[in-house]
């Protein structure tokens, strides 16, 4: 009775198997990378939705008043509070202020005591600060906003300073110098788009060019009411 010897893979066959696995892995990597980006954008949208709800609850409790983008003064003693701090009691966690798609930087100085915030509010118009005089900056009642479905409430943002994080605000790109328009803090970090939350609660991913040139931009940035 003959005993059959077990057949072993040859070197060529092993190389073929390895090559096939490498090809499959190469095909899957872009798909997985895209899936991760979509997941991060979905988490970001969920964060924006929770922030919108927190602001809505604040507004309901304070006679339809929109929380200012910032209050206080940088003059010592520093009493500045950002919008993200003025209604923290309405948030379950400040983690919703941080976008999973944001590339975190390390700054030489930081706003001590202020929570990290990757979403900016319009610091040029609409409830900006008690000391501001720009058009619409003292409109603090939501019922006075004529087109809440077209006016920006929050947008993905990034710091424009090399030394500290100021991503809690964005500037209107329709005014100022060319430099300030380019440095208005909007961050198109999700497939070249930024998630924009409007005052009626809906969220849209928009390209930066759309936020600069669309016909309704005067309303979007509350340049006009």
Protein architecture, described:
The chain has helices at residues 11-61, 178-182, 208-213, 217-220; strands at residues 70-71, 81-82, 119-122, 152-156, 169-170, 194-198, 203-206. It is an alpha+beta fold and 225 residues long. The strands form two sheets. A five-stranded mixed beta sheet has the order 5-3-4-6-7. It has a two-stranded antiparallel sheet with strand order 1-2. The longest helix is centred in the N-terminal third of the chain and has 51 residues, at 11-61. It is elongated, with a radius of gyration of 24 Å. The N and C termini lie far apart (96 Å). The relative contact order is 0.14.
Provide the fold topology.
Blueprint: H1 11-61, E1 70-71, E2 81-82, E3 119-122, E4 152-156, E5 169-170, H2 178-182, E6 194-198, E7 203-206, H3 208-213, H4 217-220
Parallel strand pairs: 3-5
Antiparallel strand pairs: 1-2, 3-4, 4-6, 6-7
Question: Can you tag this structure with a few keywords?
Answer:
225 residues; 5-stranded mixed sheet; 7 strands; 29% helix; 11% strand; elongated
Produce a short descriptive summary.
The chain is built from four helices and seven strands; from the N terminus they run αβββββαββαα. It has 225 residues and is α+β, with helices and mostly antiparallel strands.
């Amino acid at each position: 009775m003959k005993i059959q010897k077990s057949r072993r893979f040859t070197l060529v066959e092993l190389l073929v198997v390895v090559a096939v696995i490498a090809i499959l892995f190469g095909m899957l990597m872009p798909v997985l990378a895209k899936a991760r980006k979509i997941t991060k954008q979905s988490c970001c949208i969920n964060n924006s939705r929770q922030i919108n709800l927190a602001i809505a609850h604040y507004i309901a409790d304070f006679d339809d008043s929109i929380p200012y983008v910032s209050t206080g003064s940088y003059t010592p003693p520093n009493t500045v509070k950002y919008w993200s701090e003025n209604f923290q009691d309405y948030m379950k966690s400040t983690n919703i202020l941080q976008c999973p798609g944001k590339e975190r930087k390390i700054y030489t100085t930081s706003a001590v005591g202020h929570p990290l915030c990757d979403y900016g509010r319009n610091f040029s118009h609409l409830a900006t600060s008690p000391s501001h005089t720009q058009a619409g900056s003292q409109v603090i009642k939501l019922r006075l906003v004529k087109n809440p479905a077209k006016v920006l409430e929050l947008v993905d943002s990034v710091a424009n300073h090399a030394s500290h994080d100021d991503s809690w605000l964005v500037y209107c790109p329709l005014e100022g110098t060319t430099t300030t328009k380019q440095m208005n803090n909007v961050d198109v970090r999700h497939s070249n788009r930024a998630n924009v939350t409007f005052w009626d609660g809906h969220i849209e991913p928009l390209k930066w060019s759309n936020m600069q040139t669309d016909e309704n931009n005067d309303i979007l940035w509350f340049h006009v009411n």
